Here is the input.
Amino acid sequence: MEVKSNSCIDMSGGEEDDQMNMIMIDDIRRGPWTVEEDFALINYIAHHGEGRWNSLARCAGLKRTGKSCRLRWLNYLRPDVRRGNITLEEQLLILELHSRWGNRWSKIAQHLPGRTDNEIKNYWRTRVQKHAKQLKCDVNSKQFKDTMRYLWMPRLVERIQAASTNTGDSSSLTTSTTTTTNHDDVDMDNSGTRKLVMPKTFSGTYGNTQINPPDTTEENSRTTAVSPVSGLTDCYYPMNQTQNQDSFQNINKIGDGFDGSLTSPSGYFNQTMDFEAIVEQNNQCSGVIDFSDNLWNVDDFLFFQQHFDRM
DNA sequence: AATCGCTCCAACCGCCACCCA
DNA sequence: ATGGGTGGCGGTTGGAGCGAT
Here is the structure.
């Protein structure tokens, strides 16, 4: 339905609105959104729905492009946007889906309820690519992809399983930097970054790992970190309950290969691990892994250490 | 206290596909 | 067939926040 300019609802009040519409023509606002702008956008969409973003921007009295309004709504103001830390399940899902689809952020986001493509893209760039950089690998290199497949993803599965078994509480699965005591094989670089020096050889198996879906109650799923601006939506809209569908349940909906037991289509979790090959690959990279966030932490090191000891 | 460097993420940009007159 | 408008997507950037020096 075309929204004609003369059918605009006056959101800001008479003459002021006319003035604003005139200014808008050649005075497009950019940069961070104000609370007032957020409120105007939310209010307008609440009454008229979304779509036709250019005319929506005009009619809502916003000095923004339609694109900007659309982005602000979809990535931030939408009531079912789920903010806060990326959970372990979500990390696993992102790694898995990215291995299948590459940088298809929007497609990946469809399988993470409440998460936006922008958020996933940012996660990938800030966390995953950081690790590739630390390994001195190209993020698209076989070495790095195999490291993800054979080390990170199985480890994530383990941690999900452990947390689920121990507590049955998915809130324990949200990202956090594990800090424990130092270890002989954990180096600190000049900047104090905790690092794992990869062993010379390593072999072991990673069998069929069964995962129990964690508790999906809203209390456990909401991981806080709502910005002051987006908090506006909380008081304006009731929170959408569907935002708390668990990512795990979605794994089963993705299609070919997912059978509900978290056996990935690419078979990551069923393969016998050729860790020697991995180590070789890591040697081709730097052989040093950063512990500074939750893809690698001291728990991971201890996990690998257990396997080393068995050799 | 000031400065610097780094991380993270909200927002922008450019391109492309689709729709419709 | 075509050209303008629009929406969607992926890549990139600017700046706030924060810790280190």
